[in-house]
Amino acid sequence: MLFLVRHGETEWNLHKRLQGQQDIPLSEVGVNQARELGLHFQNQHIVFEHVYTSDLLRAHQTAQLITKGMSISKFTIEPNLRERFYGELEGEYIDDIVKLMPDYDKNFGVKMQYGIESLEDMQKRMVSILTSIAKVTEGSPTLIVSHGGSINALLHYITKGEMGTGKGKLANTSFTRLQWSNQTFHVQVYNETSRVKVT
After folding, report:
1. What Rg, from alpha-carbon coordinates, does the chain have?
2. Which of 30, 80, 105, 182 qualifies as a FRET site for 157, CA 20 to 30 Å off?
């Protein structure tokens, strides 16, 4: 069972600045969100055997806080779980970005400007790394902490566009649960937030 978690809130999330691959730490709210999610998993008697996290600080911090007190056999930092690279637009305010590129976050099939990683390239690396993780973990409880854009790109691929990119925003510390069977991902829970304070 794979639990995909978006990292906790950062100050840049709060102020609507585009983070991309900038290494921004969790805010106080984000720290509390991650702790609450960890308690939720413990209350549900979910103990992870494997943890994979993006190497960006906000994701790594989230993973550590969620699993505090758990005995983890394998904790892997995986750069391919990073958020999309937004090139020259990283650090800019979302309101300013949409004036330049109204579809900046859902622009499949468009030639990229400003040094931005294409959605297709991000989606490809996410599908590749999740498939590898699924094969290695073989159904054991696995926590994967990544980012809103990258998780959505993966879900867009898995559901053939019914979920994911262009269909809605993933909340901070929401989780999406996937099952891997017959060499295929199946979405069982999507963007679950009922037990955290969503900002």
Report:
1. 16
2. 30
- At 97 the three-state DSSP class reads helix
Q: Is 83 a catalytic residue?
A: yes
pTM for the whole structure: 0.95
* Tens digit of each residue's pLDDT (9 = 90 or more) over 98-156: 999 999 999 999 999 999 999 999 999 999 999 999 999 999 999 999 999 999 999 99
CA-CA distance, 44 to 67, in Å (whole number)? 13
pLDDT in tens, 22-54: 999 999 999 999 999 999 999 999 999 999 999
Block residue for tokens 């100050």: 11
If one counts every other C-beta atom within 10 angstroms of the C-beta of residue 49, the result is 16
Burial (0-12, 13-18, 19+ Cβ within 10 Å), 70: middle
**What is the 8-class DSSP label of residue 153?**
H
Q: Check if the beta carbon of residue 24 is closer than 8 Å to that of residue 12.
A: yes
**Of 7, 60, 147, 156, catalytic:** 7
User: Among 9, 83, 90, 117, which one carries the catalytic annotation?
Assistant: 83
